[in-house]
Design a protein that fits this description.
Blueprint (H helix, E strand, L loop, with lengths): L2 E10 H7 L3 H7 L2 H9 L6 H16 L14 E3 L5 E3 L3 H11 L4 E9 L3 E10 L1
Antiparallel strand pairs: 1-5, 2-3, 4-5
Helix pairs in contact: 1-4
C-alpha cells in the first residue's frame, strides 16, 4: 500500500477553548454531527481542540492546507461505537483526494491524543 500523505498537528488547548466561546467559530469550524456529539459527551474537555488538530493534520496530509477548496467543516471527525475517532469519507473529501492523488480507493487513518495543555493529531492518507 502506498502512502499519499502524512500530517500531524498540535494545538494549545487554552487557545481553542477561548475560540470556542464564540458561537461563530464553532459553527464555522465544526459540523452539526461534531457539535451534537459534543453536547452528548460534555465530560470531554479537550474535544474541540483534538478535532481542530485532526482537521489541520488532515489538511497537511492532503498537502493543501485549509484554503480555497477545503474548509474546516468539510473535514468531519466522528467516533465509532468504541469511541475511536475517524474521518467521515464524504463526497467533498473523496473528490479532493481523487483529484490530488488520482485514485478513488483510499484509506484514512487518524490518531488523536491530549494532555492538560496540548492536543495532537496524526493522519495518514493511504492508497487501498
Amino acid at each position: 500500500m502506498r502512502i499519499f500523505g502524512i500530517g500531524v498537528d498540535i494545538v494549545k488547548n487554552r487557545r481553542i477553548k477561548l475560540l470556542t466561546k464564540k458561537k461563530k467559530f464553532i459553527e464555522r469550524t465544526f459540523s452539526v454531527n461534531e457539535i451534537n456529539y459534543f453536547k452528548k459527551h460534555k465530560n470531554n474537555r479537550n474535544y474541540f481542540s483534538k478535532r481542530f488538530a485532526a482537521k489541520e493534520a488532515f489538511s497537511k496530509a492532503l498537502g493543501t492546507g485549509i484554503r480555497n477548496d477545503l474548509n474546516f467543516k468539510d473535514i468531519e471527525i466522528l467516533n465509532d461505537k468504541l469511541g475511536k475517532p475517524y474521518f467521515l469519507k464524504n463526497k467533498k473529501i473523496s473528490n479532493l483526494i481523487s483529484k490530488r492523488f488520482k485514485t478513488k480507493k483510499y484509506n484514512l487513518f487518524l490518531s488523536i491524543s491530549d494532555e492538560k495543555d496540548y492536543s495532537i493529531a496524526f493522519t495518514i492518507i493511504q492508497k487501498q
